[in-house]
Amino acid sequence: MAETGNPGNGATSEAGPLVVLEGVQKHFGSLHVLRDINLNIDRGEVVVVIGPSGGGKSTLCRAINRLETIDEGRILFDGRPLPEEGRALARLRSDVGMVFQSFNLFAHKTIMENVTLGPIKVRGVAREDAEKRALELLDRVGIASQAQKYPAQLSGGQQQRAAIARALAMNPKMILFDEPTSALDPEMVQEVLDVMIELAQEGMTMMVVTHEMGFARRAANRVVFMADGQIVEENTPDEFFTNARTDRAKDFLSKIL
Ligand code: ADP
Ligand code: MG
Questions:
Q1: pLDDT score of 56 more than 70
Q2: Which of 58, 177, 178, 211 to mutate to test the pocket of ligand 1 (most atoms within 8 A of CB)?
Q3: Is ipTM over 0.90?
Q4: Whose CA is nearest to atom 22 of ligand 1?
Q5: How confident is the model over 99-129, as pLDDT tens digits?
Q6: Atom of ligand 1 nearest to the CA of 179
C-alpha cells in the first residue's frame, strides 16, 4: 500500500493507479469526442474535470464505467482492462459509483428502497443488514429522517445527497460525479458539495466534473481542463485557477469566474 503514494486511502491493498486511460479515442459518427486521452487516477485521489460544454467530459466519465465503449486505446480499472459483459461488468459498475446531474433516483421507490436495492440485488446483502447500513449512510449525508419518503417529496439537494448515499451503499472503489450540482437551486449547492468534500477527505477516489471552483480548491488534488475532446491542461487547483497556461483555459476561466 505504501507504493500507491496514497497512505490516506486504506480501501484497497493493490498498488498502482486505480484508473489508467491510454490513448483513448472515441467517435460518435464523424464527431471525434475523445482524442488521445491519457490519464491516471491514483487511489485516494480527487480529480476535477473542467471545461466547456461539448468537450467530452461526460463521455469520459461514461467510458470509465463502460456506459460507453471506446474505439481505440485502453482503460484499466484496478489493474485490469474493463470487462465487456456479464458479471464482471456488473461488478465494475458497482465498484465505480456514479452520481449524475439529474439525480435519477427511482421515482416509485422510497429513499430507503433506492439505497438498498443495489446491495440486496447485486451484492446479495440481507435486507435487514442493507437497511441498517442505508440508515447509517443517510445519516451521514444528513437525510436519515427522509428515508421513508419518495424522491419527489425531497428537495433537489436532498435527492442528490440520497444519490450519493445510494452510490456509497455499494462500497465503491471510486465515485464519478458528473456535474452533480449544476441542476440544483443555488442555495442547495453547498450542502451537496460539503458531503463530497467530506468523502474526499476520507480518502474516496473521485473524478468530479464540476465548475465549482471552491470545491476544486478545497478537495481536488488535480484539475484536468478538457476541451474539444482533449486534455488541454492539467495542474493543481491553485496553479490552474490563478496561472492557467493555455489561452483556451484562460478564455474559459474568464467566462466562469
Ligand atoms: P460534455 O460533458 O463535456 O459537455 P459530452 O461528453 O456530453 O461533453 O459530449 C461530447 C460531444 O459528443 C458533444 O458534441 C455531444 O453532443 C456528443 N455526444 C455525446 N453523446 C453522444 C451520443 N450518444 N451520440 C452522439 N453524440 C453524442
Ligand atoms: Mg456533460
A1: yes
A2: 58
A3: yes
A4: 28
A5: 999 878 999 999 999 999 999 998 899 999 9
A6: 2
Domain ranges of the chain: 105-172
C-alpha cell belonging to residue 235: 495542474
Strands 72-77 and 19-28: antiparallel
Residues whose beta carbon lies within 6 Å of some atom of ligand 1: 28, 31, 33, 53-59
Distance (Å, whole) CA 193 – CA 110: 23
What is the model's pLDDT at position 231? 98
Q: Which atom of ligand 1 is nearest to the CA of 226?
A: 3
The rounded Å distance from CA 59 to ligand 1 centre is: 6
Helix (H, G, I), strand (E, B) or coil at 1: coil
The Å distance, Cα 219 to ligand 2 centre, comes to 20
Q: Which ligand is nearest to the CA of 182?
A: 2
Q: What is the value of pTM for the model shown?
A: 0.92
> Which ligand has an atom closest to residue 53 CA?
1
Cβ contacts of 26-30, under 8 Å, gap ≥ 24: 26/56, 26/59, 26/63, 26/68, 26/70, 26/71, 26/229, 27/71
In this structure, how many other beta carbons lie within 10 angstroms of the beta carbon of residue 183? 14
Distance (Å, whole) CA 204 – CA 175: 8
Mean pLDDT of 182-209: 96
